[in-house]
Design brief:
TIM Barrel
Amino acid sequence: MALTSFSLNARDGRARTGVISTPRGEIRTPAFMPVGTAATVKGMLPENVRATGADILLGNTYHLMLRPGAERIAKLGGLHKFMNWDRPILTDSGGFQVMSLSDLRKLTEKGVTFRSHVDGSKHELTPERSMEIQKHLGSDIVMAFDECPALPADRARLESSMQMSMRWAARSREAFGDRPGHMLFGIQQGGLEEDLRAESAKALINIGFDGYAVGGLAVGEGQEAMFACLDFAPEQLPVDKPRYLMGVGKPADIVGAVARGIDMMDCVLPSRSGRTGQAWTRRGQVNLRNARHADDPRPLDENCSCPCCRGYSRAYLHHVVRAKEMIAGTLLTWHNLHYYQELMSGMREAIAEQRFAAFQKSFELEFASGDIEPL
């Protein structure tokens, strides 16, 4: 089996474009990963997700271990076959979801015991078990198991959590072993503290990973604080490895993160917004529930080539959103994912042509201009 690799093709300021090569295909960076939490990007067929330009999907260890179960997926041929997606898959470690279950969990040095939000059954998740589950799933990029405290948090809590996450990272590395064709990413922690982030990065580099994530952001700190952290955090990580910002985000967050040296991102926002009648466009966010769209024959975005914009009017989208028809979530999710991937493609091209600053300025001006005027 072919080995994995990462190559940087161009840099413009701190923005980077390159390629992560895996046996299941190339991932063009900067890359946005649609989230397939329970082995599906909600409302979409896998081939339609691919048609938007996605090179890789994200699967969720926590949800898949509970339902239908990692061992069951393994018996059925692994996650790729199970969900009919033959391209790369990244699986998170389960740490973030366990954090969000603070009322149902118990945290120790060994790992986390928690009660399932599905049926109340008791489970244990450790670095070793997380690696085992992700191996059963067969994911191409595996995330080390970590603890992710919500922000704001005091420094003592952040330092203690980060140091335990680094011990868990070493255990994850050992449990992962040697798996040609698969990559293991470490996760930097430390909240918004530059010295703690530096300590975390040094520990991860000493352990040795195929890629590095900036974890513990987009957990309540706000964009200004997140960007302030990204002004230093990515630069603490190896220049020749992919850098992944977990759980981000809105289009402006993504462009700002790429400007600061991030290569990969994921977020549920495009699909979650689509299911609630929200569209993301080059002119900002549009709420299709609003009555202003009821008689509007124009497409959502006349410059967009997605099936939603090619075939359906704002009036129709307004109708199916208000009527709670299933097609509403599908069409708007399709559009949102298409827009996100178009944004990534535009950034890759701009970085390669050494005009990223102009691209970013143009994006910010158009995004801030607001939706088209009502008829």
